[in-house]
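During the reporting period the student researcher (J.K.) took over the structure-prediction task from the postdoctoral fellow and processed the backlog of single-chain submissions. One of the processed entries is reproduced below for the supervisory committee.
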Amino acid sequence: MLLLCFPLAVNAQKKITEWDKSAKPTGIRFGTDVISVIRIPTDESFNGWEASADIDFYRYFLTAEIGNWSRNYTSANETYANDGTYWRVGVDANFLKKDPEKNMLFLGVRYASGNFNETLTINQNDTWNTTNYVLTNTGTQANWFELTGGIRIKMWKYFWLGYTARYKFALSTNEKGLMKPSDVPGYGSTDGANTWGFNYQLFFRIPLPKKQQVVESNEK
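J.K. obtained the following structure tokens:
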């Protein structure tokens, strides 16, 4: 019985040792959303940016994202504006387990939160005069969840490209005014129960130093 258990114990110890070695982080990636950068000069209704960072533990990548977002809409009778910041934290699971370059085909999950202000001005015209109604939400907090998926590809040395598709759901807000939030920074339009998002990202990866093994000599 002991002879049977001994190989199993050795094999289990070997797997634990392999896990310990592979779970050590090898690098940190810092990235930015290219779509936001392009939208600033091309979309007059939008201004903002988003940055992200991740670190690997075996096939899992801890991820953090932060951004700023402002929108401006004007129609014949309404003017809407908002401004705020947001952040997300979560984990991505890489399905390309044995790729030495650590390219990624991943699925993940995020918890997200944002704080913002918004103002809606309604111009009501009648025969005699014009009346302006102003609705505001100040210091509003929003929370939601995201399911993510995408790729990360090494392009050259320390530079990576990738995209992230996002399914955003379970939005909750704590507005104190009469107006229901119309557009939440980092989330988007609140017209439906859920929404989609997409980022095209450029990353710079900083390798972490490998721990040098000390070889003991038997000579005295």
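The committee noted the following: The first strand starts at residue 27 and ends at 33.
J.K. will present the remaining backlog at the next meeting.
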